[in-house]
Amino acid sequence: MPIASITDFFREIVRDLHTSLYLALGGSIDEETFDWSSKAVELTSTGIKILILLAVLGFFYWLAIYIIKKSRAKIRLNERRTKIVRSVLRYVWVVTSLIAIMSQIYFEPETVNATAKASTWAGIYYVLWASSGQIIHRILQHYGLNASIEQLLQNILSVLLLVLGLASVMAQFGFDIVSLVAGLGIVGLAVGFAAQSTLANFIAGITILLEQSFQVGDWIHINENEGRVVLIALRTTHILTRDNITVIIPNSNVASSEVTNLTSKNFIRFDIRVRIAFEDDIDAARKEIVQVLTDTEVVLSRPEHSATVAEIGEYGVFFIVRFWVKPAAVARMPKIKEGLREDIKLAFDAAGISTPYPHMRLLMPKDVDYPIATKPFATTTQILSETVPLTKNDQ
Fold first, then answer.
1. Are 274 and 341 within 8 A, CB to CB?
2. What local confidence, expressed as pLDDT, does residue 92 receive?
């Protein structure tokens, strides 16, 4: 390529940039020559006007902040409300400064007007979003609803305010909101069909939060899992087991399963089984069991605990020991039951009450005596066997 052609190419680019810059500064393409000196004077004048407007607006903003700071005690503004007022004033200052700049740099009046309206709508929705959390908290506190529902409503309301805010702002610039909403609806329908399981879990999560069958902190049993509820999200429920393992269950499974809430009441009853030998005293054994329950701190005295004979079985007399505890003790229930069994065993040993277990005892008749060398074992000796409990007298 000739050098002259390359030079002309770059000159054309420079000329176009020169023209574009002149037009951006408010010049006209009909002018034969570009009057840069007059444009420079005009640009300087515009800059001075902008600086004066920004200074005036900044002064009023500083004055408003100063008045609020000095009269905060008189108008009884707490820290949270003071932050909100300052945020609103800062937003108004930024928006008015932006509009002042736009009005001085050749923006169309319709664009400046649309920006002012859009900023006003955005400010209104911002105030609603900032105060929605406190309003929802007070409403839920009044009706006694839990924190999980509060978080759910805040998320839903935040999304709703964001969508409405964007729609209102875009409407000021001439966008067709009806067509946009219709398009989003079609897209949402397609996404709903593509993610049916996620949508089912979402709906189930809302149902769980509204029904309040269990809440965060409750100890529940669901399917083969038992533990404390640590999180109820929109899609899953998280359970922390005694082994410090977090089990994550889809909400659709939770909603369709049988859930046992062990801590929904003020106290819960549990039971264990112990046994004594046939020849031991039932009342003495009951006294020792009741004394162990009374001495155990975690066991409640009211409602009253009990120790009753549940079964007279093949290997002894079986007691069923029932006791009541507070909901906070449910997480330690295996250890509590193990401790009670150990204490009851030690109390039985101290009181001379035996704890039998299955064994085999062989009985041979004493009135038959054969010489050892002549008696055939299988035919002359009768061996009687029976299954009986082994007590201390047999040991």
1. yes
2. 85
